[in-house]
Every structure is written in structure tokens, then in C-alpha cells.
């Protein structure tokens, strides 16, 4: 199934949840936050939030800025 | 000297934002540095306790294993101030703040800026007012970037912002305080901390801001774009303290003519 | 941070006058204080190593048993810089320097000022040139007070003065640096230390002088006439260091328009 | 015999020397310097320098100034 | 010289507001004068063609038989610009404009100011935006008083105002142009005439405004509160022309060092 | 209005130098122009009555039949002010003045400048004092170029100079009045006309000089190096009059806060 | 009947119209504009606009201001 | 015989006077002033002032300057 992560298309297995996506992207242990279709997914819900086809996922973190 | 307030201005004279006490009145940004190590050393030399960061997609500045900004600036040590840099609408700014709060486990202190123009990076005042109102309602502690319009500054305070941060000059311009008169008016009328945000270029600019009665200064480019950022960070650290102490000490009155420092009496010549 | 020059500017960056190294670039006067104790505390807070004193008859400010200025500012700890304050002729200034040298057991560092006008306390340049020439011939190490005329400053250097000290504004006026352009010209052309003497009013003035490239600042009234002289002395101490470090760090270039501190790429909005 | 000290007239005994004058003025142990008739008297000569009638003596010290 | 633009700047270089051509770039207020005769003479000496007036109840400044302001400043000779001085809400300002239009037989050029604060007389920007939008819809030609915020100035232009008039400094303060940088930004981005309104104190202030590229200057107190208002009016008349001509002539580049005006070659010495 | 000084400042308010009355307070140089025709038109547009010229060998700028500078600026119409531009010693300046007097059939008004440095073109004060003394003794009417040192200015007056002309900034720099404070001090103490000479860059600079109380302004590069010299000459003509009238009119006092121009009473809203 | 003119109470005869009010106030030939109860009365309607009891009338003109 | 005029060498006939020199240089009717060996020659003396071998002559006029 295809989703969009940070504006890029990405193939993920059906029933893939957010925790699995982050693990696969090697972001599981990184400090980041996540939106699916503009809705924030709390960290506590990562394991239970199942992604749907064409979901728009945004994963953000802190970078240098002023 | 250690007993003198003059040498321990911090403990004697804290900066209080949203109920939290800070000993440093210099807030710094984390952009435009050569690398994270330079960022770390400059922030350390600046003595800043509050550091502002931008919120961006993870696929930016994120190579496998590369340290993350928050690894070198741990939230346990620094108060992280996520900003809405680059947002040109109230909606984008609000969305950014919500993500930042999630990112920082509910930490709700944010720096709101809604830009109106890519050339000057001046704030869009109507959009800033709108975003500030919504964010305050959502429980954010809003430190807001604005122009030096004293009435807009007052309105932002009335909306519930925890600090108002007028620009000294355009972001990244280094032109110094273009209109000290307005900054002074803002300070006179404020009940929340007033911090000059943006436009400082060198140490004396920071000292002048503090001498005008500002509660603090936030800067990024003045340090990061100096030839020696770490040394400039140290300079700014001292300049902000110097300006604050001069403000508290009460400067001498200006005189149009000379006034001797040595006694006239007792001259033998 | 202790390895960084930014935090140890002194050892890394000494001020050298007449061959002697100083870690502080702030020189202070000792006039106009409430009492000797306030003088002592202000001088201490200023971090100054060179303090200037006036020469007067003993029946002035000398009650039996009352401590003497040099008791609270011992020459063993401070470099005493006797000045010719109040002298309106080359002769009086020279006579004062000779007496001061005798008073200080041959110590030959002096601050020469020959005033030309009681209202502005501006120096009398022809008389200053004459006195400087004679004093140098007599072996004095002359630190000379002058106007901000770059050519006169150069001539005084050529006469052998060990430091040239242009005024920022009239003595005791606190008007700050009236003509930064001339001060910059003087600094650019100098081979001896250039110190701004007189006219500084608050901390940012001192920082600006140092950012212009001056080697130091000498002040009295800005500290002594502040509401809290000891706290202002501390402010000046930090301001001079801040300005020096900013000068060494190399300030960012000024830009007419804004320049973002946060990256554009990676925006999710 | 009368001399002038710091602009004021003062009576001193004949053959009074500088050291005696300073002692009498309680300045012996003070840090000061001295001129007689515009000529500086070195500290080493205090005891041997005898004052003359109408001598103009200036005794100076350091005071606060800038 | 009569053929030179330099001596006939007017005909060569008209100010066009709402489609009407004016030869003078100085607009004047009519308040604070000793009497109507002084008002008349000052306005005449200023050379102004547009004069602004306030709208008030007839029982004020109206004794039977006493001449009316518009008797000494006949609308047939001057373009009368009614203003909304003293209005602190959009509603009051709109109501005032409607009455003014009736008073002047449908003449629809108005000066909009919505104040936000009695101490500084700064404009209330949100209320000003709201009033401007409504007045433009009702067919008024709106010349609008605003801050020096470049983005608000642009928005007012986009709303259809025929001229945007940023303040130089608070109304009646005479502090001159506090932030030339912002005024320049406003001028650079404008498609309608930009006039500095309020804050000018003396002739050079007006010249500076014009040298920044402003299309005109509106003032009242600088003339009315001068020791000799009629002479100051003449000074302002010339200063605005001088500044405009200097702007058109293109000033010399600034140089950091000297540059001789006389040839080196041909020296016989 | 024709009865008002405001419209006939000249006749009411002459500039008197060495006993001769002038209606214009703007003096202009004749260097750096494209050709003699541009020189003629610019001088005409400036309204100047006194024009300064350099003295050089005839084989310079002298082709057979080519018109001579004094053909386009006839001494019958203009007061010719020969200057000692380019002289670096008192001797050269004195020799130049003597030749100029011979050239102009005994006309003894001269502009003395003795330069001390090729980079800044600042005057050599000791040499200027020496040359001024000798020239006055020889019967010259000396208008002298000097720094903004108030005491040197006074000394030159005491030596018998008929006008003292402090620099605003280095010759040809166009930096404007670097130190208005000193210029004001010079004016306050002077009994002879004080003219700002050198450093003016644009019209407002000239107006500021006059508002400080100067009796006139001498300039060359600001006009000759403008994009349109003739138009800039007209601008300077008006700016000097504007500044003078503003000085005579007495500017309004500065206020820190706003002060309404329209009456509060009579508001119907 | 009583009306309010520029904030002050005023007695006028019944059926008094605006033109009559202005005439009585000696403002007929003055350049002014007029509101009744916040509604602008055009000059052309002065003669036909009849005032009612308690009407709020505002009569304004131009005064010096900046 | 050779003289120096404005720094350049020039041949002139013996007994040449200043007036003749100026005439030959086509400067007779020009507004200029003249020095011989640093001494100013008044206009009235041009016809009688005879130049000597190696004389240093300076002829100056007014040029544009500020």
C-alpha cells in the first residue's frame, strides 16, 4: 500500500502501524512528532494507529533556527 | 566583590517568563551555524538558558546516526523554545506549535512569528493577532514576535502572551535598534517581559536594548554570522549583563557642556 | 568554556602601555565619589588596574588621621596615573607631572591634559603639543588627552606619547561618542594604544568605543555620577570586555533586508 | 620667621628644615611631595634643606580626580 | 534659469493624488494657530494647495459674525481635506467622513485617522484597516494615517486608499523621522503616493522625508508651534522643494575618506 | 506676503563678510564639473554670490582660445574667492594667496586651507594658525578652513580671520555633519560668520547646518558629483534658505509624546 | 417641543423643520452639515424635514485641525 | 637664453622682458599673474622687467576648484 511521508511516496505493508513505520525508518528512538492527515498522533498511540492507503504522514523534529 | 549585586546580577535580578525564573537575559537561536559542535559551543559561551529551534521534516538535516540538535542542547539543561519561523499564515503557525508541543512532551512555551513578507521578514500583524488569540486559548505560553508598534504590543499582552518581542530591525539585518523611541514606549507600558527580537548586529546593540529597559534580547545571526561566533557569543553574554546593570544603576544625566572630575580647590598652580 | 579565548579575553589579549601588560582595558578616575569607601568599591567593581588621580595641596581633603586616597588604592596593587586635570598652561601641567613623579618615587607614567576652556573643558591643542614634547624629553611616559582630530593624534604619537586619548565628548558630559568616524580614523592610523577619554555616559557608549577598535576606555563621571556607582562600575567592566570581544570576533555584515535564521527547506506547511 | 605653605602664611623657627616642617604639620608619615620656591625638594634632602624667610612651600598629595 | 526643471520643479514634477495634479508637495493642517489671520498667512506662505481641517460642532469656535475657517481658506482656492482627528473607533471616523462629504457638497477626499491611544496618538491599525475598507467601498478617496509598518502600508494601498501617510514620529512631537529605514521600505514598495504625516519638527526633517523618496509631507504643529509660524511655513515650503529636487538630482555617493575638489596637477608649489 | 521676511529672507537678513553684504548664504566651489558650461549653469542655479577657485599654472586647463573660468564667472558679477587647495605648508598657502591677490588686481579675500593629510584632507591646525596670522598681517581677508575644534575656531577668530569655516566631514566625503554638537559650540562662541565648509552631501545636510545657526555653507562636490548637478544646485539654494528661515523662525519644542493638532472640544462622536 | 442640538436641549415650535431651526440659529447662510438622530439630512431636504420631539440634532462645520 | 616657465625649459631672446614672454605665449590678454624666481612681478612692470638666463618663471591663473 502507498502512503506519503514528508511529501514523498512510500510503500508500506497493509495494516502497517505508525510504530512499525518509524521503526522501519529508523526513527523509533529519535525525538520526533507525527501527523497523519494533519491530525497529530500521540506517542502513546503509535502502536495502535494503523495507516491507510494514501495517508499523508508528516514526521517532524527540531532543527537549528532562530 | 562577590557580595555585590553588581557581580551577581543574576540571582539578584531574575528574568521571569511564564512563572519560570531565568538567570540569563540573553536568548539565542540555533540557526546558521557551521555544525552542531559550533552551535553547542556558541550557545554555551552565550550563557543562554532559553534556546529557540525551528520545526522541520525529519528528512532534513537528519542523516542516519547523525546527532540531533536536541542531543547537543538537551531539554534537561536548556529551555527549548520552538518557533514558527517560516510560517506566513496563522494556520501554519498554529499547526507548528501543536506539533512542537507533541514533540516536547507537552512543553507549551512557543515563539510565535507569522511573517508577512519574504523580503523584510516583517510580521503580519493581523495574522499574528489572530494566531496569538487561538494559541493562548489552547493553553500555549506565547512569546510573540511583532513590530515596534506600541499599541499592537499592548494588544498582544492583553491577549495573554507571556512575552512580547518587538523587532529592533529586520531579522538577520544586523542594523541595530532602528527606533529606540518606540521600544521605550513599549517597555513603559508593558506588564509582561519585553524582549528585543531580531536586528541586533553587535554587542553595543544588545547593551542599548537593555539600557532602554528591555527585559531581554533574543538573537541568532549576530552570533552565528560573526567571524568568530563563539567569541561573539561571549561578547553578547557580557553586553546583555552590562546593559542590564547600567539600566539598574541609573545612568548619569547628560550635560551639554563639560564638568570637571577633579576638584578645582587645592590647585597649587 | 575555560579553554576558549572568549572567556579569558584578558590573558589572550593584553593591553600594553609603555611596555607594561594589563588585563583590563577599562581605566577609571577617582573623582566625584561620595567617600573613599565608595571610591574603593567602585574601582574594585570596575576591574580597573590603572586609576587616575589628581595632584592637589595637602590642606585639601586631608583631615588629620583621615585615610589618604593612596591608602585605599595602594600603588602596590594599582598603577597610579597622576593627571594634570585643571591645568590651563603647559607650564602648570609640566610642573604637576614633576611633582607627581616625586610623589610616586619616580613613577613616570602621567596623564597629560592641558585645558583650553572652562565651559567645554576641551584641550588646548597647541599647549598640549608643547607640553607633550617637553615631558617626553624629560623621560615621562605620557598618556595624552586630546580632541578627535586625527592629525593631532598622529602628531602626539610622533612626539613620543605612549598612548593617545581622544575625547568622545566633553569631560563629564556623558554624551557618548559624538564622532565615531574620527575615532575610527585615529585608530586606523595609530601605532600606540588609543583610549577614549571623557564623554562616555553609559555601558553601550563604552562598548561602542571598543567596537571601533579602541584599545581601552578611561572614564570617571559615568561611574561616579550614576545612581549606583558600584553597579555601574560592574556594568562598565563588562561593557568594555563585551565591546573588545565583539571587535575581535568580527561583527556580522549589515544587510538592508531580512535574512531568515531558520531553514526554508523541510517546511511541512 | 615666616614662610608660606600652600598659600598660607606660617611661622617657623629659624633654621627649620623641611623634615621639621613636615613633622610639625603631622605630614611626616604621609605620602606627599614638596616644592620650595618652585624647586622640588627630594625626600632624601628633607633633613638637610633649611628653610629661609619668605620661602614659598607647596606640599601636594594625590586626591580623587579623573 | 527659467528653462531649467531645477527652477520649475512643480510643472515638471506634479504630485498626483486621486487623479488630481498638485504643484506643491507640502500639505498643511490648520490647527493650533493664534487666529484665522495667522492661519491664512501661514498657509499662504507654505504654498500648500491641500489643507486639512477637523469636523466639529458649530457651537465650537463659532461666534455670530465671526469668520469661518472656510471663509479664509476658500474651497475654490484650496483642496480641503477633512480629517477624522480625534476619532478612536472606525464608526466615529466613518460617520465623520460622511458628514464632511455632505458639508463639502460631495467632495470625497478625506484624511482617515483612527487613533488608538491618547498618550502617543498612534493609530489603531486594525480599526484603521476596517474603516479604510468601508470608506473605499462608499466611494471615498482615502488618504490614510498609519504607522511605519511597511506591510500595513501595503495592505492599505491594496484596500484602495489613494495615498498612504506613515507617521515620522508621534503627532505633535516634532521628533523628526524616527525610522528612515522603514519609510524607505514603504516608498520602495508603493504604487500610490506616500506622504509623511506627523512628527516633522523643522525644515531639515521635511527635506529628509523627501530625500527618502516620499511624494509629500503633511504637517501642522511644526509650523503652528514655531516662534514665527509664517516664517517657518516659508521654510517648510522651501525645504520640501529642496528635498524633492535633491532626490531627483541624485545625491553624490558617500565616501569614507577625503576627495579633493581642486586639481592636483598644475600645482606650482 | 511680499512684506514678510519669510518671502524676502535675503534683503531682511544679509550675510556680511569683511564688511560686504551678500544675499545668498550658499558659497560654491567650481571643481569637478564636466565643463565650464555646466559650471556656469550650476553656479547660476545655486544662487551663490561667492565662488571659490583654485590657483594653478596656466599650462593646465588652458588650451588656446578655450574660455577661462573667470570668463564664465566674471568677477564683476561674482565675488571670486581664491583658495589654497592642495597646499600642505603655510609657505605654499601664503605664496598662493599673494599670487591670487595679484591675479585679481588686489582683491584680498581668500580661502585659507592648509592640509595635513592626503587621505582625509583634514587641515594641519598648527600650520593653519601660522599661515592665518601672517596673512592677516599682510592685509588679507582670511576665510579659514578648520576642524570642528571649538577652541581652534575661536583662536582663528582672535587672529583676525573674517570667517571661520569648520568642516562638517572630510572634503568630498558627503558624510554630512558628523558632530553637530561641536558646530553648535563654535557658533555659540563666534563673533565672526561661521560657515560649514566641506562634507555636505545632500540638501538636508545643508539645512541642518543652517538650523544649527551657521551663517552659511560652502560646498562643491555635493553639487558637482550629483547625477544632475544643476538640479542639485537649485536644491541646495533652497535648502540653505529653508534652514536659515527655520533657524530664524524658532523651531517647535520636541515632545516625547503625542499632542493633538485638532481640538478635543466640539467632538460630536 | 424639546430637541437636542449639539448635545444641548432646545425648545422649538411644533412642526419646526430643519431650515427653520438653522434660520433661528443664524446658521442658514453658514457652511455646515446636519444629522438628525444620526441620519444625515441633505441640504435639499432642509425645508421639508420636520423635527420630532426629542430629536437628536448635530450641526457640524470645519474648524482648524491637523 | 634659457629660462624655466611653469617647470618647463624655454628658449627666449636676450633682453626678453615679461611682456614679450607673455605675448609670445599668447597670454598677453589672459587674466593671469606671474612670479620670477618666487618674486611677484606686478602687471605694471611687465614691460620693464627683463628676464635673466635660468630665471624661474611661474604663470598662474584661476581654475575650477573647491
Task: Tell me the layout of helices and strands.
The complex is a heterooctamer, with 4 copies of chain A (66 residues) and 4 copies of chain B (269 residues).
Chain A: E1 2-5, E2 8-11, H1 18-24, E3 33-36, E4 39-40, E5 56-64
Parallel strand pairs in A: 1-5
Antiparallel strand pairs in A: 1-2, 3-4, 3-5
Chain B: H1 9-12, E1 15-17, E2 20-22, E3 26-29, H2 36-46, E4 50-57, H3 69-72, E5 79-82, H4 90-103, E6 109-112, H5 125-137, E7 141-146, H6 150-158, E8 163-166, H7 180-189, E9 195-197, H8 203-211, E10 216-219, H9 221-224, H10 229-249
Parallel strand pairs in B: 3-4, 3-10, 4-5, 6-7, 7-8, 9-10
Antiparallel strand pairs in B: 1-2
Helix pairs in contact in B: 2-10, 4-5, 6-7, 8-10
Please describe what this structure looks like.
The complex is a heterooctamer, with 4 copies of chain A (66 residues) and 4 copies of chain B (269 residues). Chain A has 66 residues and is mainly beta. Helix content of chain A is 11%, strand content 35%. Chain A has a 5-stranded mixed sheet with strand order 2-1-5-3-4, with no helix packed on it. In chain A, a hairpin with a 2-residue loop joins strand 1 (2-5) and strand 2 (8-11). Chain B is 37% helix and 16% strand. In chain B, the strands form 3 sheets. In chain B, strands 5-4-3-10-9 form a 5-stranded parallel sheet. Chain B starts with 8 loop residues before the first helix and ends in a 20-residue tail after the last helix. Chain B has 269 residues and is of the alpha/beta class. Chain B is globular. In chain B, helix 6 runs parallel beside helix 7 (180-189). The chains are: A mainly beta (66), B alpha/beta (269). The C-F interface holds C 116-117, 120, 122-126, 129, 147, 149-152, 154, 169, 175, 178-179, 181-182, 185 and F 116-117, 120, 122-126, 129, 147, 149-152, 154, 169, 175, 178-179, 181-182, 185.
